[in-house]
Structure formats: C-alpha cells, structure tokens
Design brief:
By secondary structure, the protein is an all-alpha fold. It has helices spanning about 30-40, 45-50.
Length: about 60
C-alpha cells in the first residue's frame, strides 16, 4: 500500500510509454492564459515539477 500522494514507478518493460499532447483550443476565450500555461509547462521549472511526478520529456 502506498501513502496518499505517493507513487511507484513501474518498470518500462512492464508497460508501453504514454505520449501526451498539449495545445490550446482554438475557440478558447482565454488564449493568452492558455499560452502562459504552456510556456510554464515547457519551462525548466515546469519540467522539474512534472519530473517530480514521474513524467519525462522527449
């Protein structure tokens, strides 16, 4: 059992990798804010946060 908020890495040989995409919906009323979010996710700080939770970037 894992504590709440904890995670366990599954060996890459036990599952296929999951590719996720990021984009802005063309009719979004918040284009600028969405772009700011994407910029943050792609920044060193954003990538470090994602890495903390097991995500990797290509």
């Amino acid at each position: 059992d894992l504590d709440e908020g904890a995670y366990s890495l599954v060996p890459e040989t036990r599952h296929p990798s999951i590719t996720q995409a990021l984009g802005i919906v063309s009719r979004s009323p918040h284009q600028a804010e969405a772009q700011q979010f994407i910029d943050f996710i792609l920044s060193k700080e954003g990538q470090a946060i994602l890495g903390k939770y097991g995500y990797t970037s290509p």
